[in-house]
Each structure stands twice: as structure tokens, then as C-alpha cells.
Design a protein that fits this description.
The complex is a heterodimer of chains A (160) and B (111). In chain A, 45% of the residues lie in helices and 19% in strands. Chain A is built from seven helices and five strands. In chain A, strand 3 and strand 4 form a beta hairpin. Chain A is elongated. With 111 residues, chain B is of the alpha+beta class. Chain B starts with a helix and ends in a 6-residue tail after the last helix. Classes of the chains: A alpha+beta (160), B alpha+beta (111). Strand 5 of chain A pairs antiparallel with strand 2 of chain B, so a sheet runs across the interface.
Chain lengths: 160, 111
């Protein structure tokens, strides 16, 4: 049999597999975008640092005490591996989080063990943003809507 | 994210022409959503007097469409915009939003 003919499907299969793997790769976390969203939504930034082979962000999301609060209070950005840990001066063993404000100022850091179960909310709650006045916000929107003849769309976002 | 969709090149100019964009927070969410079902994302459209026109709790059953992905969720999102578009946004512009919503949501549907 013609070798070229035999190898072609295998080559294509391999190339397709590589392309598929590349397409499936998670996009690089974008800290600047996360901080911009945090500023816009009056939230903190939760920098999740996972040790190699660990997905601490997933663990946090599956924490029932915490998952809803995470959506309301934090914009999350997740990094994995030693390079990220070094960059964030993470000296704890294993995974953990660094909480910053939208400008990047560090507010606290916690290890995986410190954020286990109900303790997670107790640790993170003091770092939540002060709420914006709902009355003032609606009043400003109403004024703008009256002047411009538009209606008002109020949205409470979360990852789609 | 709804934010990402509303910020799309073709969508943003139409959206900004028809609606004042407000990002809600906890206090607003509690005040406006009350006990209606569903988590986040949630959205509501008010008239210039602050009276609710429509929310993301789709009629008649009242389930929150969240970030619209399924065809029926996208249809309700468009309905929300239709009901509140007033005189600022044309039918043709709503059609653009409809098409953009399909382009944005279709890849997010489960196959």
C-alpha cells in the first residue's frame, strides 16, 4: 500500500487533535480586565492561586456557603502553578487566594485550609466592598432617563 | 456576560441610544427583585419614572432567563428590549440586536 496514503489520515488525525487541544486550552487570565470589572461593579478581586494539579477556584465555587457571595462580591481571576505563586509572593503550601481592591491593593490572603467550609465566608466577609447607595443610583438613572427620553436597564451581572 | 454582549460593536450604539445602563448592586437587587426566582444575572427595565416595565423573569412562568443562551431565553431578552425600546430604537435596530444575540449565544448552547 502507498505509505503516503496510509499515513495521511493519521497525520490529519494528529494535527486535528493538536488543533482541538489548542482550541480547548483555557484563555490566559486577564487581571487588568478583572480589575476593571471589579471597579465597575463595586467588587473586590479574588486572585485564586492553585497549585499544580489543583483547581482551587472550582473548589471555592462548589462551597455552598460561599458560591453566591463570590458572584456578588468578587471578580475572580485564577492562576495555576509555581510561576504565578512566585509572582504573587505566595509562600503558603498548596493553593490559596489573595484579595485585592479594584486598584490592585492587597487586602488579605488566605490558604486553602483557612477557606475550608463555613470559615471561608467569615474570612472574606470583612473584605467586601461597602455597598453603593441604591437610592442615589436609581435617582441618578431616573434623572438621566428623563433628560434623554430613554428607559433604564438595570443589570446584575454574573458570568454567562 | 450580559455586559460583554451589550458592549458588542453592533449592539452598544443601539443599546446606548435606547436605554440608560445601570449596574446593580446588592441593595438594588434586593429592592427591585424582591422575592422573584432565579439567581444572577438578573435584569430589570424601568421607565423614566422608576416604574418597572419588564424584568428577566420571563412571562408567563416567571423563571429568570439569566444570561440568555437557549432560544426561548433569547426570545424573552428581545421581548424585554421590544417592550421598552420606546421611540428611540427602530424595528430594524431591534433586529440587529436579535441577530447579534443569536451569534453571541449559539456557541454557548449545549450540543
Amino acid at each position: 500500500m502507498n505509505k503516503t496514503f496510509t499515513l495521511l489520515p493519521l497525520t490529519l488525525l494528529f494535527a486535528t487533535g493538536v488543533a482541538f487541544a489548542q482550541n480547548k486550552a483555557a484563555p490566559a487570565p486577564d487581571l487588568a480586565k478583572t480589575q476593571a470589572r471589579a471597579l465597575m461593579h463595586n467588587k473586590r478581586v479574588l486572585v485564586v492561586l492553585s497549585a499544580d494539579g489543583d483547581d482551587f477556584a472550582k473548589d471555592l465555587k462548589s462551597n455552598r456557603e460561599l458560591s453566591r457571595k463570590l458572584l456578588y462580591e468578587f471578580e475572580t481571576v485564577a492562576f495555576t502553578g509555581a510561576a504565578a505563586a512566585k509572582e504573587w509572593k505566595w509562600q503558603g503550601e498548596g493553593s490559596g487566594v489573595v484579595v485585592t481592591d479594584a486598584a490592585g491593593k492587597e487586602l488579605g490572603r488566605f490558604t486553602e485550609d483557612e477557606l475550608a467550609g463555613k470559615a471561608a465566608l467569615e474570612k472574606l466577609q470583612p473584605l467586601f466592598c461597602e455597598p453603593v447607595s441604591a437610592t442615589e443610583k436609581v435617582a441618578a438613572a431616573i434623572l438621566e432617563a428623563k433628560i434623554s427620553g430613554r428607559n433604564i436597564l438595570i443589570r446584575f451581572d454574573a458570568p454567562w | 456576560m450580559l455586559e460583554e454582549f451589550l458592549g458588542r460593536e453592533k449592539v452598544a450604539p443601539i443599546y446606548n441610544k435606547g436605554w440608560v445602563d445601570v449596574i446593580g448592586g446588592k441593595a438594588l437587587n434586593e429592592r427591585l427583585k424582591g422575592k422573584r426566582s432565579g439567581g444572577l444575572p438578573w435584569s430589570v427595565i424601568l421607565d423614566p419614572n422608576g416604574k418597572e416595565i419588564v424584568s428577566s423573569n420571563a412571562e408567563p412562568k416567571g423563571g429568570n432567563i439569566g444570561g440568555p443562551v437557549a432560544p426561548e431565553e433569547c426570545a424573552w431578552m428581545l421581548e424585554m428590549l421590544k417592550r421598552s425600546s420606546g421611540t428611540k430604537v427602530s424595528f430594524a435596530e431591534l433586529k440587529v440586536i436579535d441577530e447579534e444575540l443569536e451569534i453571541y449565544s449559539a456557541p454557548r448552547r449545549r450540543r
